[in-house]
Task: structure prediction
Amino acid sequence: MNGQLKGVENLEGTHLFDLAASARALRLNRFLHGLTVPAKRDLFKQNPDAAFEQASLSAEERRMVRDLDWVALIRYGASFFLLEKLGRVKGVSNPEIIAAFRGETLDEFLKTRRVPGAR
Result:
């Protein structure tokens, strides 16, 4: 392991995205990146199961995406930048995703920000 990462596993709420995580979640990340393609995005919106099948997602990957289980997705190895694509398609804002990572509601999270009225 890279010496700069020594002890990272002890940092609560930190999920290392390295080559191993990237490889493990490659199929999922390719699916999420595909949401930038209008035809794939439309298929996902209209028929998620067909989109999952086309991407050969595992049962667990399908569950995480279907449930918008942000914490499980990031722990699994999904790229945060690609989770933003999923959020956009599902109408979930970036602050809502971050709040979920922190185990907070959106309102609880926004109270920790110094931007009055932020959404």
